[in-house]
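My hope is that you will study the record closing this message with an eye to the fold:
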Amino acid sequence: SENSPIELFVDLWDTILSGSEWRGELQNKKKNGELYWESALISPIFNENREITHYLAIKEDITERRAAEMEKKRQTGLITSLLDSIPDIIFFKDTEGIYLGCNPPFTELVGRSKDEIIGKSDYDLFDKETADYFRFHDKEMLKLNVSRHNEEWITYPDGRRMLIDTLKTPYWAGDGSLIGLLGISRDITKRKLAEDALQQSSRKWEAIISASPDGIGMVSLDGKLQLMSEKLATIHGYSIDQRDDYLNKTVFDFIDPSNHQLLIENIQKLIKGEKNQRITEYLAVRQDNSKFYIDVNSTVLFDLNGNPESLLFVERDITERRLAEESLQTKSSLLEAQTNATIDAILIIDTNQKRVLINQRAIDLFEVPQDILENEDDSLLLEHVVGLTKYPDQFIEKVMYLYENYNEISQDEIEFLNGKVLDRYSAPVLGKDGRNYGRIWTFRDITESKQSEELLNNERALFRTIIDLIPDAIYVKDTEGRKVLANPREVEFAGKFSEEDIIGKTDANLYSASVASRSKAEDDYVIQTGNPMVDLEGTITDREGRVHSLLVSKVPLRDVHGKITGLVGVSHDITARKQAEDDLKQISTRLSLATRAGGVGVWDQDLVNDFLLWDDQMFALYGVERNYVGQAEDIRLAGIHPEDRNRVDIQIDMAIRDELNR
């Protein structure tokens, strides 16, 4: 028929014309036009010259067999598609444990393809312990010819653990012979977890009822008591032995009649879903008719169809709490007064970005408008404050970071457009159990302190500039003798080139042993006694090898509490002065020799202190002894002729004026 491909006929004729036998299947058409399948064997017939004279064809109608095969193939494809679409794990083995087939969920479990599984045993796919387990139970099931049902935990190649419910059953051929076994495994992990959770929940529910300090009860929609925990019975003055007495009552029997209407309204609102605030205070009644206050938290329990079925409630005796609330109110008022009295602006934001507290200082400092104060949404206040800052992007970035990282503690400084500088501190509000309740922000105006700090820094810079310019060597040591400050002159005396070369070092690291030993003894005295040492003379050799004569003073350095923290040393270079003194002594000696040789007397008058000083020659000229020094002026005047006194005074006066005008 035209349904058979042309290639089939080409192959047929090529084969028989070549003298070979052709076998094959093809679709043909009957005279009535009906199509059928046939199996054909066509052989050429040869004469004595090996020439093909005829063809012999043997044909068999295989339409039914072909149809059966196609149906089998279709069913096989259907079964394969069905198995591949089933989420359960499906596999089948022969009686020797060799896998004959499986579906994709099984290949996922094993971590291999279907081709890698078929023809393999459990020992090729699993570890020996697991394979032994599977093989043992397979043999038991095949031996007894009874389906086997069990639950077992399996581990996927990626580490996932799953609880599966596996059914293994004998796998029979059409003739009744045993082929092997068929296994179907279903993931029941969620179901098992749900069952465990349900059992756990049930146990928790029973434990909560037994251990809860609050009373727990359940009533029907008309108020009849269905469940009453032991604690609830105790709250109302009943014992556990009186269970039958209180279970026959309604919830109204435990509430004072003055609150019955409120109870009815609340029950109706609960059932209708209109009651938002479910905690309500009632005046309750005990068995002995004494009255007390309770709060009740209620909820509606629904049946499987979503219809209200009963009411569950938790009751607590709040008589003591009421007294505590009064005390708390007093403390809260005190806390509010304290937060409003502090110099810091305080702001507390909860985890929902709602403002819990803002004190008066924060309101004043940020000039918060009334409409923002009336809204608890922190975003409004945040937007307002951001607009006041000098660097808004940095401000909001830090705020967002701290809200996202609630365990972070932060402290920084914020500059505002009006020139103010605030110290900002923020920390999480954590309970004793570590639970996060929000974040607290405190702001302190440090504008004046920042200005003072800047002034202090300027003064320090000026102070440092001054001590660096002073020609004297100046240094500061701590109580251990380590230098913590040194000006350039001290660096030079120490034989170094920068202050960094001597900071942290002692004199033993910088000077000779004799100089260091003497200096340490002086330092110890000043630090231990608190007394200064002034104008100590000594010498030192600088880095150029020059010897300097020094006049050293050391005074204790004290902190604001008067505690000695070190000392300050000043070394004044008196090398030039010492040289001048030596030169002056030499000149004086020479002058004295000259005046004695010439018989000349020398006198000196101190005009400031009105004191006259004579040398030895003056006493000799006037013929008086040195113990008359106090009368030297009188003796001098007596030795001048009266007519010359005026001229002498004029010359002395001219000499004084000439000296002053130089």
